[in-house]
UniProtKB/TrEMBL annotation:
InterPro entries: DinB/YfiT-like, Maleyloyr_isom, MDMPI_C-term_domain, MDMPI_metal-binding
Tree of life domain: Bacteria
Cellular component per GO, a single term: plasma membrane
Domain Mycothiol-dependent maleylpyruvate isomerase metal-binding: 11-138
Bilayer-spanning residue ranges: none
Pfam families: MDMPI_C (PF07398), MDMPI_N (PF11716)
Protein name: TIGR03083 family protein
PANTHER family associated with the record: CONSERVED PROTEIN
Gene Ontology molecular functions: metal ion binding
Residue intervals of the MDMPI C-terminal domain: 150-251
Amino acid sequence: MAPLDHERYCAAVIAETTALREALHGADLARQVPTCPDWTLHELAAHVGQAHRWADAMVRARASDELPDDAAHVPGYEPGPGAAALDTWLADGAAALAAALRAAGPEAPVWTWAGPHRAGFWARRMAVETLVHRADAALTAGRPYVTDGDLAADGIDEWLGLLSDPEQAAKDPDLAGLLGVGRTLHLHATDVPGAEWLVTGGPGHVEVRREHTKADVAVRGTLTDLLLVMQRRLPADSDRLALFGDRTLFDHWLDRTRWG
């Protein structure tokens, strides 16, 4: 499916960061994040803020090559000590990124790790990145997690688009392992009519279509829960999902997309 409007992504970067900050308020920032077990809540928040600043620096510079993701190359890379400083740092970074993306417009040439090599890639990627990591924070802090339907659907579209990109499969053995002879996965949102995906592992590439049809394995749930299970933030055996068909095939898809 076509991406959302560029301004929708820019606004979502700010809105999702605001919701992330709200999930962090009053939480123990030293608590480990179960869905990202190598990180504490503070480290999760720092990762999001650093990703915003890294993308911001590349968009502002119209970088033609990857900018190193570190304090030596990215202004304001590290937050100050304490929860209040972290909160302000997150807000400022999101606002600066959104401003840079708006000024650039979606078609400005910028280095990206997948196509298209335009600023619009970073608008979408950072909106979805923040949306998903907000789930990590909310689940860790015991807070509710609700998404806007269009962003949840777009997050699924982006994930499927990346894994179906032949260039990505060519350089990632895990993604190449999804190729096959027609094994199919069907995702069916129960809360939005027409929000369905058919994913086929063909001999040369993964094909994605918006279609209602039978498949080797089908997963039904709300858009939010489909996004979470695809991003491995919700267990495949959760009672919030209904799974039909070949469970081992679904596990195979999840295992091969841990980059997502």
